[in-house]
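My current task is to audit a protein record that another person submitted. I need someone to confirm that the token line plausibly describes how this chain folds. Take the sequence as given and treat only the tokens as open to question. This is what I was given:
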Amino acid sequence: MRALIQRVSRAEVTVEGSSIGRIGPGLLVLVCAMRGDPEDAAEKLAARVAKLRIFRDEADKMNRSVQDIGGAVLVVSQFTLAADTRTGNRPGFSSAEAPERGEALYLRFAEALRALGLPVETGAFGADMKVSLVNDGPVTIWMDSADRA
């Protein structure tokens, strides 16, 4: 699975003009299931995201996790994280997981974060969503579950 993680002061996702997920301080996580992801990819990625130390401590160093600060997580599915732009001008998405399994892994990721005690809001898989955020820092981190055993 791939994730683009943004430290936010606030974030919100809307579908057809209605807010379906909103958080205050915490993380906005755009997530994509990749073809061939193992069954435990969602849980492993969730554990890494929950412990990622990108919030400031008393010494103004990035040394605290979203769990440490009592923050929340907004999880939004985004298959375009699988974009292959190596050739041509139009990205390919063949490395993204098929929608049915992709949605299952996306939901497992959100549930795994909840199981770790985090408040989690979500977008709507496959919907045309509008995401607004205030990126705090800005801090934006790319994470791929395949990068770590």
Q: What stands out?
A: The chain is about 20% helix and 40% strand. The helical segments are 41-51, 66-69, 99-115. The radius of gyration is 15 Å.
